[in-house]
Write a structure and sequence with these properties.
Helix content: 40-55%
Strand order of the largest sheet: 1-2
Strand content: under 5%
Oligomer: single chain
Length: about 140
């Protein structure tokens, strides 16, 4: 007869392994990523209006800086069904960039809002970028070398 023991860690082993795997993959794929993460501005600081423009490149940059940690290529490392892919957005009642902006601004579920970090213009720019990428099925972006 075998005795099974209950994990005293409260089932946190799998999520932590996922986080460690993500960090390791960043270090392997992009060695400078750890340094960039360490030097990144804290989340609580507001992005200045001068840094936020309505261009697609700033939407991509803001997404990369504030969203890609959990939503890499439109996915979701925390909740598999809550991706930024068009089918998942539509299945969850998100039908346009304004709906994406509302979630980015205030948050939903486990995701906190980013209004304080991005400001109104930044939220709109990121939402427009996310919606455009979702409609294009999140094409791979060329990396700077």
């Amino acid at each position: 007869m075998t005795v099974q023991r209950k994990c005293s860690w409260g089932g946190l082993v799998i999520p932590w392994l996922l986080v460690l795997g993500l960090v390791a993959s960043l270090l392997i794929v992009q060695p400078g990523a750890a340094l960039a993460l360490a030097e990144a501005e804290p989340r609580s600081e507001q992005v200045s209006t001068a840094q936020v423009s309505a261009s697609q490149s700033s939407g991509a940059q803001l997404f990369e800086n504030h969203c890609a940690g959990c939503h890499l290529q439109g996915g979701n490392i925390i909740r598999r069904g809550k991706t930024l892919k068009l089918a998942a957005l539509q299945r969850n009642g998100i039908a346009d960039a304004d709906a994406v902006a509302a979630i980015a601004r205030a948050g939903v579920g486990q995701m906190g809002g980013y209004a304080d970090v991005l400001g109104d213009e930044g939220v709109s720019v990121v939402a427009a970028y996310v919606w455009q990428q979702a409609q294009a099925d999140w094409p791979r972006q060329p990396r700077d070398t």
